Predict the structure.
Amino acid sequence: MPPTPLHRRATCALSLVLTVLATSAHAAYPDKPIRLIVPFPPGGATDVIGRVVASRLGTELGQQVVVDNRAGATGTIGAEAAAKAAPDGYTLLMGTLTTYSTMAILEQGKLRFDLLKDFTPVMVVGAVPLVVVVNPKIPAKNLKDLVDYAKANPDKVSFASAGASSVQRMAAEMMRKEAGVRMLHVPYKGSAPAMTDLVAGQVDMMVETVPAAQNFVKSGRLRALAVTVPTRVAMLPDTPTTQEAGLPSVEISSMFGVLAPAGTPADIIDRLNAAMAKVLSNPDVQSQLLKQGVYTQAPSTSTQSAAQLRGEHARWEKLIKDAAIRSDN
C-alpha cells in the first residue's frame, strides 16, 4: 500500500529528529578524552612530537588528549589500530607519513590498512630534514667526493637504512639514482643499530634524520656532507644543502601528520583541523618541535593535507618503480 501523507510527514519528522540529534552530538564534541596513538615507543622523536601536539591540542579542545604508544612493526601496529577504531573523533594517529607512503607501495598486500582509503588527514604537522653522513674512513669531504668515490668503486660503498621501506632507504636510493652510482644497501631494524654500525665502520654511509645524526656529527664520529632540504638547517648550520652540493633534485624530508579513521564526520574533522591550526601557529609549539628537528608547516585544511599525502605517495611510487626497488633488495 503506498505511503499516506501522514506516513510521509511522520517519516520526515523522524528524519529531522535524527538529524538534529546527530548534529547536537557532534556539536558537543569532544565531551570525553581523545586518544592519540603514537606508533612507536616512548622517548623517540615521534613520541616527543606526539606529546607536544597532544598537550596543546587538549588545551584547544578543552579535553585531555592522551598519548597511547602502540609500538611495533615499523609503526604499522599502531596505524592498524587507528584505522580500525570507531570513526568518531576520539581516536587519532600521529602518522609518519613518508614512511607509511613508501610502505604502502613496497609492502602492498601485506599491510592490514590502506593509507589513502582508511584515513582522513586532519593536518600535516611538519617535516624532519635528513642529512647524508659517512664514516670518517671514507675519503669524502663533500657530496661530490662521495659520488666520485662511489663511481670509482661500484657496488663497494655500502649504505645503511632503518629498514627496507624506511625514509632513510628512499633518500639514499634517490641520491644513488640521481648521481648514477651503484651502492650496496644494508637494511637494519631501526635507525639505532644502523647508526651504531655506521659509527663503527661496518657500513660506509647513511642518509639519516638530522636529529638522530647531529650528535655523531658534532662529536666527529661521522662526517656530514649535505642536508636534503632547500635551505640549511639550524642544527647543522655549516652543512651545505644537496642543491649547494650539486644534487638539487635530491630533496626529501620525513613528513609527520595527524590522521583520523576514514568516515569520521566532516564537522569533527573541521573542529580538529581548526584546533590544530591554533596549535601549529603557537610560537612555543614551533620552538618545542624545532628542538626535535621538526620544521612545522603553515596550517592547512584537511583537503589540502589529503592532497599533500597523495602527492607523497605518488612521488615514492614513481621512484620505486623507476629504480626497481623491492622490499627484499
